[in-house]
């Protein structure tokens, strides 16, 4: 047994997020990077999807959490997303998330928040 990391780079999601008047009632793009460490992973023996955590399920979970309701703070969204991933997928040991707003400022590519969470840390 070992560990395995599933990652997403710049998953593009339109979300309702922000505290400013122009952000309320509208969506804006977010970019989500995720590193998801699985614990006690066996090597697949039959090359079948049933032997691994299907990353399509992780992607659906990330998109659903980011789009289900308006959130004021990107910090709140990151914390909720980390908690949901740990609760919904018992095989996850650690998760690192970066959520960025690429349109927040004209003078930089993006601004965002990074959080890490581990099973057993308040979960």
UniProtKB/TrEMBL annotation:
GO BP: any one term: folic acid biosynthetic process
A single MF term (Gene Ontology): dihydroneopterin aldolase activity
Protein keywords: Folate biosynthesis, Lyase
One GO cellular component term: cytoplasm
Keyword check for Lyase: yes
Presence of keyword Lyase: yes
Pathway annotation: Cofactor biosynthesis; tetrahydrofolate biosynthesis; 2-amino-4-hydroxy-6-hydroxymethyl-7,8-dihydropteridine diphosphate from 7,8-dihydroneopterin triphosphate: step 3/4
SMART domains listed in its UniProt record: FolB (SM00905)
Domain Dihydroneopterin aldolase/epimerase: 6-117
Known catalytic reactions: 7,8-dihydroneopterin = 6-hydroxymethyl-7,8-dihydropterin + glycolaldehyde
Annotated transmembrane regions: none
EC number(s) from the headed UniProt entry: 4.1.2.25
Family classification: Belongs to the DHNA family.
Entry function: Catalyzes the conversion of 7,8-dihydroneopterin to 6-hydroxymethyl-7,8-dihydropterin.
Descriptive protein name: 7,8-dihydroneopterin aldolase
Organism field: Pigmentiphaga kullae
Taxonomic lineage: Bacteria, Pseudomonadati, Pseudomonadota, Betaproteobacteria, Burkholderiales
């Amino acid at each position: 047994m070992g560990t395995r990391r599933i990652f997403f780079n710049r998953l593009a999601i339109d979300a309702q997020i922000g505290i400013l008047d122009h952000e309320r009632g509208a969506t804006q793009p977010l970019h989500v990077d995720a590193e998801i460490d699985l614990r006690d992973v066996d090597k697949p023996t039959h090359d079948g999807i049933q032997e691994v955590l299907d990353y399509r399920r992780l992607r659906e979970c990330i998109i659903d959490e980011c789009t289900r309701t308006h959130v004021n703070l990107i910090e709140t969204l990151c914390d909720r997303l980390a908690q949901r991933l740990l609760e919904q997928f018992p095989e996850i040991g650690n998760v690192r998330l970066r959520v960025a707003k690429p349109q927040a400022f004209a003078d930089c590519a993006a601004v965002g928040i990074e959080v890490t969470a581990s099973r057993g840390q308040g979960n």
